[in-house]
User: Fold this.
Amino acid sequence: MTTAVQMVQMIRQGETTAVGLVSAAFDKIAETNDALQAWAWLDRDAALAHAAALDSLRQSGRTMGPLHGVPVGLKDIIDTAAMPTACGSQPLAGRQPDADAFLVSRLRSAGAVVIGKTTTTAFAFMDPAATRNPHNYDYSPGGSSAGSAAAVAAGHVPVAVGTQTNGSVIRPASFCGVYAVKPSFGMISRDGVLRTSQTFDQVGVFANALEDAALVTDVLADFDPHDEGCFWRPRPQLCAGLASLRSQDPHFAWFDMPYFDRLAADAHAGLMDTVARLGNRVEQVSAPISFAELIEAHAVIQTYEIPRNLDRIRQEFGDIFPPELGKLMAHGATISDKAYDDAMQCRMAAIDYFASCFDKFDAVLTPAALGEAPLFSESITGNPICSTVWTLAGLPCVTLPLLRSAHEMPIGVQLVGAAEADDKLFGVANWLDGYLRQK
Amino acid sequence: MTTAVQMVQMIRQGETTAVGLVSAAFDKIAETNDALQAWAWLDRDAALAHAAALDSLRQSGRTMGPLHGVPVGLKDIIDTAAMPTACGSQPLAGRQPDADAFLVSRLRSAGAVVIGKTTTTAFAFMDPAATRNPHNYDYSPGGSSAGSAAAVAAGHVPVAVGTQTNGSVIRPASFCGVYAVKPSFGMISRDGVLRTSQTFDQVGVFANALEDAALVTDVLADFDPHDEGCFWRPRPQLCAGLASLRSQDPHFAWFDMPYFDRLAADAHAGLMDTVARLGNRVEQVSAPISFAELIEAHAVIQTYEIPRNLDRIRQEFGDIFPPELGKLMAHGATISDKAYDDAMQCRMAAIDYFASCFDKFDAVLTPAALGEAPLFSESITGNPICSTVWTLAGLPCVTLPLLRSAHEMPIGVQLVGAAEADDKLFGVANWLDGYLRQK
Assistant:
């Protein structure tokens, strides 16, 4: 599959045009999307018109952006002024935002062509969407960024944008066999993205190559005073981090997580094989914090915040929430402010611990999911628990599609870096990707 | 004087700190600002606290922005949430905006330290400010970006931001002997900048080196959907343009402008000497449009728009406008919609002409001002006419401090490029600067 980096290069060398790339994307979508259901909205005419405008800029000698002509998909909880944004909810079908999300402006000024909106579970929670897994239609792509993961895995688009509140970027990427990054908390503005949890909602990127994930994240990552979680400090440059040469092999930390007894046998075996191949580059680290407590704290914070944020939807549209989300909405109201405050304290302790421990190693090596994707017939999106601790602490995470299940389904290997050191994480990820792909 | 590029390099190499740079800036300001009056507001404590935060990021190994630790001044019509923004008007003293202008966010995320607000003429019009010219206090620095030009020329800060509606960046830069750029219309967002004319208001940058002007413009230039004049296309990269190697010498166009009979004798002689040194690299071009008509069209549009935009101020604060602006406010109300529409048509014809003519040459060579700065005692800000046509057409302009008057006051040489080809213009400017500084 052609990467975004290759597409831009091909346009630069006159080997293709933005119209050519966008047409090809729609041809590919026409072949498989009836079965896959990766898209909630597509607008071929608008995308081709945008591509034609980019081609005419190119012909007039104007500057090309870093994503000039690249077709991109956006999870359908990201506001677009030119397309509806239904948040995966039938009652919101046709809802037309007034303005683009901040990140859409970033894509536009980089020259990307937003060709449509990708399927999301309703309100980005855990009730499954209609999307299928491109590797085997009997399987689910996971969630909540189901369509973004599937559209990239199916080669409809080289890159797509999703969001993660627990494991909604890393998990579907693992299930669908693509690369994905959930950058440090505060790197990418969430202005104009459906808010479910102000503490955990984060934007992430799916791609078929690490360099594409780096390129798109570099474009999206920018300070936006309209998102109070967005930090004003300079952004680590992921493309530069990816390209940086290492003077020595990286050093990985391995934490024994309380959920490892739930790893599928094939996923466990694959990870152990990976650890064995890395030899003394991996060190088992024991943390002076309880990961089980952190996972519980994440649940408390998320369950407290989601109903309070979605109450706006309830007031406007009524009780339109699907079963899993409905249960959480009801439960959330019973969580006390005290319990929430305690959980936030617990989160701060985790942030403090992770702020100091990364001087002893370069990245945490850990599973991206408990195993292969669930079957579509199970009507679940899979367990996000392999992401919970890292999301809680706001650390940058990347998943690499390096393992296979006994059924030949993809399984990801996750790397976690120090906060706001996403550039370094990408350097380590590039090393690991190259090392493990050697015969 | 140390440039911004050098400052960032010094921090990178551990030779200084952000606190060191900001302290030095305030020491320099203390020496001369009582006489110069370049600053409308300074906040030493806040600037040092910001610098200390940047130093601690640096020490913790976090990413450095392209302007890490660089002290910057902002014309006092640019909104800052942390400092008053009085627009050069006593009745607005202490006015505290709710939010930073878009460009302030850009500076902040690049690591710059906004140390204060620079003096502006009232509402950026032509009634002079109290600021003096650093080269000789008997002279005016020009206007309206008086303090930004003077603060850079005096070495208080390496770079400062101003605005231009007619000639308010290029003219004071010429008078004060510094470099300045007024980029293509739509490159830099004006969100949060006092609006006087939606058609002409543009943000510009003052510096003591071309590379600093390029660096700051690259930081500021970004798409912002909140400014309807801001284009969504990728920004030309000025630093890259500056560094690009030319395969052949540039080709300059010389237009005979209707105001050349008003050039001071020394300015005229300096320009003619420059043209002579460039030999056959300069070609006289005759345009199929009337520049006199364009200058008249600019006056009509500006005079129509300014009173309508400033009416908000009048409603809130009453009739607080100084004499020159007061006259314009009164006159503006008499301009008919028809006259305005005709002038806008005339502007479109100019844009059309300049869209095609730059394939025959690389840049227009033209004066930045009619001569040296006016005397302070004249109580004028100087004639902006050398900028009018280029501002009208939204073309990128840069002024180089290459000439001297008979009184040893600075005079600038202006280069004008094709719309949205600011990168190429900077390559040409760099060539000319190097060529004319050869013995």
Remarks:
- The CA atoms of residues 197 and 212 of chain B lie 27 Å apart.
- Chain B has a mean pLDDT of 97.
- Chain B touches chain A through 29 residues (CB under 8 Å).
- Chain B is about 40% helix and 15% strand.
